[in-house]
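Notebook entry, structure prediction.
Reason for the run: the old model in the group folder had no record of what sequence produced it. Starting over properly, with the input documented here first.
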Amino acid sequence: MNAANPSNRHDVRLEQVTKQFGSWTAVDNISLSIKGGEFFSLLGPSGCGKSTTLSMIGGFESPTAGAIYLDGDDVSRQQPYKRDVNTVFQSYALFPHLDIFENVAFGLRRKGLGKAEIDVRVKEMLELVDLTGFAKRKPGQLSGGQAQRVALARALVNKPKLLLLDEPLGALDLKLRKQMQIELKRIQNEIGITFLFVTHDQEEAMAMSDRLAVMSKGKIEQVGTPAEVYDHPATEFVASFLGASNLIPGTVTECSAEAAMVRLEDGVAVRVPAQALRNISGSEVKLGVRPEKFLVLAPGEAEEPGWNTIEAVAGVSVYLGVSRQYIMESKTGRELSVYAQNSGRAGELAPGETVRLAWNPDHTFAVAANQS
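New structure, fully documented this time:
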């Protein structure tokens, strides 16, 4: 199956969209643009407004204020069946009395398509989701992953321009979730239509998305590629939600177009990329370093030229296979998380052992100190 032509893929645009349920604001004045053909994810904790946003795009809810555009057309008050959009939910909602072929063919029969075309399109979809040979089985004879793929085939067989996926992998076990992440990305690449995926799972969103939006309390905190959002979080919430972060308070002592210096709470001065401070007003900041960016220096080992270093005391550790996670304390007693790669280079640190942690200044990000 060839990827869809760009003209057959939905651009999605939200302009100042708000959704209220009584006095509760579920979605709070958000604006967002999604390019046709993107795999885009809405990521955030339960209750942040991501599923409500998806429901408004699909037409299951109407915005209280603002507008939703598909390919430039305002569909804010348009009925779901008039939008060239299909949705896959976590529950799958397969018809238990119909076999897999008829489950996938259901929407095509409702459209009145001929038998020959239905046969071709259903077989094409079952092949796409790797379920050739399952056509005569009933949903009760399928595993969770197979049922999820039937639901996907049923949504795609109608050739929508936009596919909405609301936590579709939530009912699967961890191993199957990871397999289905790869399958979904493969299918999206193959057919080329726009996927809008809702999840609370950070790893899932990072693995699958071309871009993602992190939401909190009805607002969008940041939009970007997984690498941009992970390496350069815009807020403390994004830094903490999207993986583990070490946030250390400090004061900016020097800032120019080329470089910046920040004095940490323990008095150590460290280098920071100037661009890390470009959206922060005032001199009080929190510097962020991801746990895997730290290098634990052996006694007497010198850091790389130009790298930052701080002292810490090793605490409890957890063996993770590819790495060992240490919980350490800075000189001020601040807890730090450190991942030491399991390369066989050094033995396990003893609790109470004083070490030096080094990191490349380019791997430092900063958020405003007054954020909660």
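Summary: The chain has a mean pLDDT of 91.
The old model has been moved to the deprecated folder.
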